[in-house]
User: What shape does this take?
Amino acid sequence: MHLTEQEIERYNRQIILPDFGEEAQSKLKAAKVLVVGLGGLGSVASLYLTAAGFGTIGIMDDDTVAIHNLQRQILYREDEVGESKAQRAEATLHRLNHNVNLVTYNHRLTAENAELIVSQYDLVLDCTDNYATRYLINDTCVKCGKPFVYGTIGDTKGQLAVFNYQPPAANYRTLYPNQAALEAQGNLNKGVMGVLPAVIASLQVNEAVKIITGVGTPLKDTLFMIDLLTNETMKFKLPVK
Assistant: This one.
């Protein structure tokens, strides 16, 4: 896809990277990526996807901005409390980069709409905070043949993986096969270090860039873990059947 002179100037610091160039930037411009969840992860990921020049970005959330979100959900402001996250996100992201086509979904991903929506995108970023939606994203991406970048956070720890990329590939059920057990457990700790979403979401966007452009090595079939209290990181290879 052709880049305008303004876009070449705007994305110059990416374009001049070794092995990147205008070709990789053009691939980002042609790409369609869906962000499910506009909380801690999604608010950061959507900003960096927009700044990077992804051509079409779907943003999905049915929630409203709450005061306790502002400690980590940097997309929103105090005077937006009570307003729709999806609508506020659209307005802010458009101001950041008018070249990006934003598709706003002010509702949840459900079993009824998931396949229709996911099938329109090249890649999904899982920025959700509940198991039911995460399994739905996984199963829909497997069915539609779409890769997705998984991220999750809790207290001071985060996880990251690229699932269903270049099958045969690991997916979320490879990591957590027992859906009923996870959903019964629920979210035991709602606390989160404010900067943690920024760390994991930035890595999610980095994986999205690598997948779309072919530059670098995506985190395929591998679980990455980090603890901000110790700065320890671990990587585990996931089995592929």
Residues 31-237 form a domain with the Rossmann fold fold (CATH 3.40.50.720). Strands lie at 32-36, 56-60, 101-105, 123-126, 148-154, 157-163, 222-227, 232-237.
